[in-house]
């Protein structure tokens, strides 16, 4: 075990864990950021999608040791009050069913829109390809990404 | 006046509590209390949600119903998720698409009773007729006397004898919230900010975490366990061999301080396994089912055999449960489809009075039938009892994929005598399948037939079911047996239609009574799909129907077979009156994606004794880019409120397969891939 300093949601957080501990379990078990969801542990389902240095990443396949000196944003830190355009669009279109995959979907969509403000269906399909939703909310997710894009344009 | 027996009592000073018994779907004289709607003396409204929300949206519908009847906004209703307690709530099981249809009348009645008591209390205070008073926005109003907030009326309302107060439900034409499209899920903000607490997020302080080494092949049990290395690892607290069936499915649990330490501990176990069926192969099982069919079908003419695979539930939240066993009782935190049943089972199994077992119901990250089972809870109880602390048992995704209770394989032989005009005039449907091992009485052929057989068309004939012993764990999977039966029947009818050169919609219309729900829904779906226009070049269309769970649906799918791509799915659905239209559409959309996934390629196979798939890389669930446009039309009717969680899956799968097949016959699920 060793002490690692992580930058999570704009704060410095210290944890005592083995360096090979997946970032996912540090965020959930040590830091209580349970919005980061465990779905597969091997980078296939996207439920834990968070931002590392502003890009969508999978904390389940990143170690703690390699995550120091990166800037980590979880769904809890995406916006102060839950009103990021993506979060608003998700509510306006009533996207969620069970909701378990949605923090990951929201984070993947926010990262997509940050680099491509007006994605077409193909770009959405590509960026969110490995974010699995077992309830089948995909049509609404697609519409909500477009809605969020419009909200961001109107408020720019 | 509501004729149902209404119980009402004051609980504490100045609180108004309305409890109405929940009737079972079938008429029954059993009194099954209580659904609560509570107003405290500050006017705060709290509704108890008796059934778990597994994604079907029951919390939202309960909030809408209570807000509607109490004439307040949906955000004025606080929700409490009921703990397991069948004495109080009756069945709490999320099964057979019953949540909303069984809860609607009792919960609306409870809230309407509260409103009528508040209005009566205000009328008495003002000395005016009740008929001159109305409830709106949390207050009772009178044209000349002004308004009285609910909070000022609660003590007087609680003191009234409810038997003297007529209760009227708000009629649909006066609804402000129910049946409207603007309200989304009440939990939406929590969901998109990560605040919703699922079972996996519900560890009490001081909890340990356990993961279980599970049999490497079906039925294997640990013969010897060397846990020396595991126990030497940091954070590992204990290692425990779990026996079946008292402790779940069996295996060796490693209990540690954190998830990662438990996983590392599991990796360090050295276990010798024995017994079971190390050579099991799902292709052999399918061959066995094929050979279990009678030598000859009872109807001669046209014939087709359909083969259906194993399917896993794979909810996004992996199986988990947390237990704290204390000397005087046990507390469970679990994403369960049946908190009441779980509590009853645990009390019986642990020899405790029900009052010593508390089951806290968490939100479930999907369920699809898997969480009606209690195996993860039994594991957690065994682990917690061992270490005397709260323990969460967490399944990895591979654990979930390889140790599920699978949808049974089946083989269906359909045969029909074709009459004048190419239309079937007599039919037979012979099924060979397995029962559901998680509920042994579900291996009764009559029950399987009743569950799967919903053939709506006017073609005389019969369905016969042969049941073979299940070679692995099988369980309830969305649209239990209907998924398999309807898929075979509708694809068979489609192939007959194609061979006879018939219009698929016209064929079905001709076989349905003109005044039936399905007839009307077919018309609506056909209109939405612009059926009378020829399909675009290279595209094909598939049609299927289902009436079940008290509801009815017609589905038309449009696909490009050469690209193996589904373009559009049109569904027309009749649930009686849709209480939450966005939720109705969501359930249909979800079933369509399940259908797409299972037709395009998701299946479980068994090789060398174990399930070959381990995660979403090889259990090929559909992704966003494969998802068609889904157009759901809600057709209101006078039918009693119907269920919807499962309805759309079987016909959507059939319609999608028929559309993807084009002129080719469909012979199984997935379409165009080897089954098993």
Which fold does the CATH topology of the largest domain in chain A refer to?
Ubiquitin-like (UB roll)
Biggest sheet: strand arrangement of chain B: 11-12-9-18-15-16-17
* Average predicted confidence as pLDDT of chain A: 97
Task: Measure the end-to-end span of chain B.
Answer: 57 Å
Percentage of residues in DSSP E strands of chain A: 5-15%
Could you name the CATH class of the largest domain in chain B?
Answer: Alpha Beta
Topology of chain A as a string of helices (H) and strands (E): EEHEEEHHHH
Instruction: Note the total helix count of chain A.
Output: 5
Word description of this protein:
The complex is a heterodimer of chains A (156) and B (676). Chain A has 156 residues and is of the alpha+beta class. Chain A folds into 2 domains: 2-77, Beta-grasp domain (Ubiquitin-like (UB roll)); 85-154, [2Fe-2S]-binding domain (DNA polymerase, domain 1, Orthogonal Bundle). Chain A is built from 5 helices and 5 strands. A 5-stranded mixed beta sheet of chain A has the order 2-1-5-3-4, covered by helices on one side. In chain A, a hairpin with a 2-residue loop joins β1 and β2 (11-17). The radius of gyration of chain A is 15 Å and the shape is globular. The model of chain A has no long low-confidence stretch (mean pLDDT 97). Chain B is built from 17 helices and 27 strands. In chain B, a hairpin with a 2-residue loop joins β25 (606-607) and β26. In chain B, the strands form 7 sheets. Chain B has a 7-stranded mixed beta sheet with strand order 11-12-9-18-15-16-17. Chain B is flat. Chain B has 3 domains: 7-190, Aldehyde Oxidoreductase, domain 4 (2-Layer Sandwich); 199-276 and 319-394, Aldehyde Oxidoreductase, domain 4; 410-661, 2-Layer Sandwich (Aldehyde Oxidoreductase, domain 4), CATH 3.30.365. In chain B, α16 (581-600) packs across α17. Chain B has 676 residues and is of the alpha+beta class. Chains A and B meet through α1, α2, α3, α4 and α5 of A and α5 and α16 of B.
């Amino acid at each position: 075990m060793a002490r690692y300093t992580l930058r999570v949601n704009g704060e410095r957080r210290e944890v005592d864990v083995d360096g090979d501990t997946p970032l996912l379990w540090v965020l959930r078990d040590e830091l209580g950021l349970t919005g980061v969801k465990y779905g597969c542990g091997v980078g296939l389902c996207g439920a834990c999608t968070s931002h590392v240095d502003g890009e969508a990443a999978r904390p389940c396949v990143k170690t703690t040791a390699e995550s120091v000196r990166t800037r980590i944003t979880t769904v809890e830190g995406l916006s102060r009050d839950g009103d990021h355009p993506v979060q608003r669009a998700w509510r306006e279109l009533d996207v969620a069913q069970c909701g378990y995959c949605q923090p990951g979907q929201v984070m993947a969509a926010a990262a997509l829109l940050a680099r491509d403000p007006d994605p077409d269906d193909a770009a959405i399909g590509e960026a969110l390809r490995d974010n699995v939703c077992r309830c089948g909310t995909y049509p609404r997710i697609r519409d909500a990404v477009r809605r969020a894009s419009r909200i961001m344009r109107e408020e720019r | 006046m509501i004729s149902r027996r209404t119980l009402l009592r004051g609980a504490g000073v100045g609180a108004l509590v309305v409890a109405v018994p929940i009737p079972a779907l079938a008429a029954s004289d059993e009194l099954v209390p209580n659904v609560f709607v509570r107003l405290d003396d500050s006017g705060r409204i709290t509704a108890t949600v008796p059934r778990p929300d597994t994604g079907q949206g029951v919390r939202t519908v309960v909030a809408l119903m209570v807000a509607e009847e109490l004439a307040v906004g949906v955000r004025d209703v606080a929700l409490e998720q009921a703990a397991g307690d069948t004495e109080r709530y009756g069945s709490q099981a999320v099964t057979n698409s019953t949540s909303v249809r069984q809860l609607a009348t009792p919960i609306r009645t409870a809230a309407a009773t509260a409103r009528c008591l508040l209005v009566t209390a205000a009328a008495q205070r003002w000395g005016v007729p009740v008929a001159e008073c109305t409830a709106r926005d949390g207050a009772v109003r009178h044209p000349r006397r002004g308004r009285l907030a609910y909070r000022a009326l609660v003590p007087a309302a609680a003191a009234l004898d409810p038997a003297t107060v007529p209760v009227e439900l708000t009629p649909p034409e006066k609804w402000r919230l129910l049946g409207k499209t603007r309200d989304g899920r009440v939990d939406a903000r929590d969901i998109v900010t990560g605040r919703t607490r699922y079972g996996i997020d519900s560890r009490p302080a001081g909890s340990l975490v356990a993961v279980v080494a599970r049999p490497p092949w079906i039925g294997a049990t640990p013969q010897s366990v060397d846990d020396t290395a595991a126990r030497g690892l940091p954070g590992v607290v204990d290692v425990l061999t779990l026996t079946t069936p008292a402790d779940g499915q069996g295996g060796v649990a490693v209990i540690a301080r954190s998830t990662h330490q438990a996983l590392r501990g599991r990796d360090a176990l050295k276990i010798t396994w024995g017994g079971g069926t190390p050579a099991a192969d799902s292709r052999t099982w399918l061959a066995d089912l094929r050979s279990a069919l009678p030598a000859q079908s009872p109807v001669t003419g046209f014939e087709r055999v359909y083969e259906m695979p194993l399917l896993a539930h794979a909810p996004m939240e992996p199986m988990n449960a947390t237990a704290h066993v204390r000397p005087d009782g046990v507390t469970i935190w679990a994403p369960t489809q049946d908190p009441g049943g779980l509590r009853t089972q645990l009390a019986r199994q642990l020899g405790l009075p029900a009052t010593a077992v508390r089951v806290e119901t968490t939100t479930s990250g999907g369920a699809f039938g898997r969480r009606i089972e209690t195996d993860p809870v039994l594991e957690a109880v065994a682990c917690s009892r061992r270490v005397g602390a709260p323990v969460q048992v967490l399944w990895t995704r591979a654990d979930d994929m390889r140790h599920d209770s699978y949808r049974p394989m089946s083989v269906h032989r359909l045969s029909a005598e074709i009459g004048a005009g190419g239309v079937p005039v007599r039919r037979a449907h012979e099924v060979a399948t397995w029962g559901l091992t998680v509920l042994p009485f579900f291996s009764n052929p009559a029950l399987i037939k009743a569950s799967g057989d919903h053939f709506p068309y006017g073609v005389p004939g019969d369905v016969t079911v042969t049941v073979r012993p299940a070679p692995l764990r099988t369980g309830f999977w969305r649209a239990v047996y209907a998924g398999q039966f309807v898929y075979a029947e509708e694809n068979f009818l489609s192939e007959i239609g194609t061979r006879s050169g018939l219009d698929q919609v016209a064929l079905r219309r001709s076989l349905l009574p003109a005044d039936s729900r399905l007839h009307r829904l077919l018309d609506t779906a056909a209109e939405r799909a612009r059926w009378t226009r020829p399909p675009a070049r290279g595209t094909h269309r598939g049609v299927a129907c289902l009436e079940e769970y008290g509801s009815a649906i017609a589905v038309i799918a449009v696909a490009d077979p050469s690209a193996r791509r589904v373009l559009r799915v049109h569904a027309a659905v009749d649930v009686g009156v849709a209480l939450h239209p966005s939720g109705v559409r969501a359930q249909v959309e979800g079933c369509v994606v399940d259908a797409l996934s299972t037709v395009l390629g998701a299946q479980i196979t068994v090789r060398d004794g174990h399930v070959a798939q381990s995660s979403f890389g090889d259990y090929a669930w559909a992704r966003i880019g494969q998802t068609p446009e889904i157009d759901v039309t809600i057709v209101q009717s006078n039918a009693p409120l119907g269920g919807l969680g499962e309805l759309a899956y079987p016909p959507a799968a059939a319609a999608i397969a028929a559309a993807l097949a084009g002129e080719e016959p469909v012979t199984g699920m997935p379409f165009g891939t080897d089954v098993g």
